[in-house]
Amino acid sequence: MEIVYRALFMFAFLWFVTRVVGRASLGELSTFELLLYITMGDLVQQAVTQQDYSVTAGVLAVGVFALLTIALALVNSRWPRARAVTHGVPVVIVTGGEPHLDILRREQLSLDDLMAAAREQGLDTFAAINLAVLEADGKISFFTRHGASEGAPERPPAGT
After folding, report:
1. Tens digits of per-residue pLDDT, 55-114?
2. Residues 91-144, CATH architecture
3. How far is the CA of 104 from the CAs of 32, 85, 119, in angstroms?
4. Could you tell me the residue ranges of all domains in the chain?
């Protein structure tokens, strides 16, 4: 039963760490950060099982993590307000070509990182951005001023 308590604690701790690190950091993982998370996984295993290499201990620890993940998904689906706490909410970081510096600072996102993400979407200036949203998963969605004129028309031309 001690493994269940340890797994519960480590799950909560890892959830907390990923929330504190910030969504901008989670959107892009460097090779070093990926290796760090893999190593952290091994350390979590050691902390949960206390070097118990039995199949039962492994199944029990993974089972607790799986049940907690399913429970978290159920909580999010039944109580939408809980999702804001567990996953975060999207944040508007640029409006009308003007970046919100206070929000960028709070989200630990630099202007250089924002501009790099904009260039990846083919945007060369902040003025081209009508709206930019930092999503809960760390990705940035860009909406341009002339975006409505691109793509397929809303209605097909008459007579076709």
Report:
1. 677 667 777 777 887 888 888 889 888 888 877 889 999 999 999 999 999 988 899 989
2. 2-Layer Sandwich (3.30)
3. 24, 20, 17
4. 2-86, 91-144
